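Let's inspect a concrete specimen:
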Amino acid sequence: MTAEPETWRRDGRWATVWPTGRRSVAAQHTAGGYPPVPPHAGGAVSPEVAAYAVAIYSQAGDTVCDPDCGPGTVVAEAVRARRHAVGISRDPDGWEAARAALTAVKAQGAPGDGMILDELPDRRSWTGLGPIDLVLTAIGPPDDPADPGGPAGARLRARLASYRDLPRPGGHLVVVAAYHVAGVDLASEVAAAGRDVGWRPVQRCVALTAVPYTRVLGTARPPARARAYPVHQDVIIFRRDGGRAREPRTPDPPPLAPAPHAALDSVTSDRSAA
């Protein structure tokens, strides 16, 4: 990491909270028609986090790319939001899953369009949908935090460097990182690696991934040795130098879901009245 003054730390927008945890991740996947995932999975972009990032850092008609698209959540949410979407998955099973997610949202009437590729395009082969305005992807926990070649080291820098030519000048790269997994502050490692390979970090956010109700989190009665689950992910936003950057737009928050205990109180009141 360079020793240059980190001016982004003096930006009041650097520490913000995204209201993306009003439903559990499992409930979001069910509502969106996605395959079920573990409710506390930290290495993927949840539908609400993807939709929120797309709304802030792109506009209708823009192109959004996930260069490691996993189950295709980013692609699907971008298409729902009237964006062009490009997903990339080198894993055949992942390609099939992402393609299925894209096909499903198109069948539901999503107005955007998209494609799933099996490798990063280069300047000679790129025949996509035009300049990319937003690169949005997730970086999961390292397989071995002690491995110096893991995501905290050379591999992470190489991965972020491979995204450098994807966005247009002034475009954004948004990285969703799992929070403090296995003692590793992954978000800080991502910010440092991004700066090392030429990205300019402009904002750091917290994206909620769960509602703060133990019943929804599946731990209605904590056992003798209660387990703690992370309820947010860190989000690092970079900008590519050159060109004119758009100011991020804050979308309207989704309607607040009722707390589980409020629903139980309502049922109890109805029974008492009966």
In short: The first helix runs from residue 25 to 32. DSSP finds seven helices and eight strands in the chain.
